[in-house]
Amino acid sequence: MAASLWNQSSLFGCCSCSSKSLQPPPKFVRFPSRPFHASNTILGFPTPFTSTSINPTPLFASTTNNETEETQNGEDKKPSPSLVVLIEAYKKAFLNGNETATSQIEERIQSLANKKNKLTQKVSSLSADKVSGKVQYLRLQADFDNFRKRCEKEKISIQSDAQQEFVKKLLLMVDSFERVKQQIEAATEKEKKIDASYQSIYKQFVETLRSHNVSVVPTVGKPFNPVLHEAVAREESEVFKEGIIIKESRRGFMLKDKVVRPALVKVSLGPGNKKSSAAPAKSLEQPSTAARIDER
């Protein structure tokens, strides 16, 4: 029994000894006695400079080459180290005297600075485009408002011209009514009834014109106005002063504030036959019309 236990313990002991003998012996790293700056390794760098056995040159070279790949392929790559990380790495590399790492970090920082300048220029360009676009929009809006107002004015002018032409044609009927009124002399009861019916029709016609903003130009007793009146004759008058209308030959009409047809009137020269008073009156008379009337 004791012999068997001893054999088992010796067996397990041998196994443990054999397992220990299979493990490789520990290796000891010996650092060189020369200064640290003579080596190409970077110790104590934060991410991404934590490797002590890999040269950092491929790391920075890959980051610079990947920039063109990002623009060509349009794919999102891993974000580059921030400026704070680069500055910290630059400080440690500078203190350790690693010129290779410092030059690479300087190139990387310069690349970031160039990228920042490009982005700044792009932002300023977009801002300028925004301002110019806003100015162009305001100009287009002002032009559109002016165009709309001009169209409204033209529309009103066209409507007014069309109404004036229509009223002018209706005024011919008014003249016919006026001439018939002057010629008719009702003697019998039958003629008086005809005249009354005629006057009622004429009254309705005049009311229709008034409902469309058609008004009569005032004449007798009013001062002569070359815009509203047209002088066909001049004569002396003991009742009216010089330049006052004494008789109306044909009615004038207005549509709202526009003259559709001026009134034909006779203007007073004042009392007495005075050349001094007759001379200035000629300026109020239209020469062509006055000559035609005198010939008749």
UniProtKB/TrEMBL annotation:
Keywords: Chaperone, Coiled coil, Cytoplasm, Mitochondrion, Stress response
SUPFAM superfamilies tied to this protein: Coiled-coil domain of nucleotide exchange factor GrpE, Head domain of nucleotide exchange factor GrpE
Places the protein is found: Cytoplasm; Mitochondrion matrix
Any GO BP: protein folding
PROSITE patterns: GRPE
Chain segments annotated as coiled-coil in the UniProt record: 102-129
Any one of the GO CC terms: chloroplast
Ranges for region Disordered: 58-79, 268-296
Coiled coil as UniProt keyword: yes
Entry keyword annotation includes Oxidoreductase: no
Alphabetized InterPro entries for the sequence: GrpE, GrpE_CC, GrpE_head
One MF term in the entry's GO annotations: protein-folding chaperone binding
Family: Belongs to the GrpE family.
Subunit and interaction comment: Homodimer.
Role of this protein: Essential component of the PAM complex, a complex required for the translocation of transit peptide-containing proteins from the inner membrane into the mitochondrial matrix in an ATP-dependent manner.
Protein name in the entry: GrpE protein homolog
Originating species: Trifolium repens (Creeping white clover)
Upper classification of the organism: Eukaryota, Viridiplantae, Streptophyta, Embryophyta, Tracheophyta
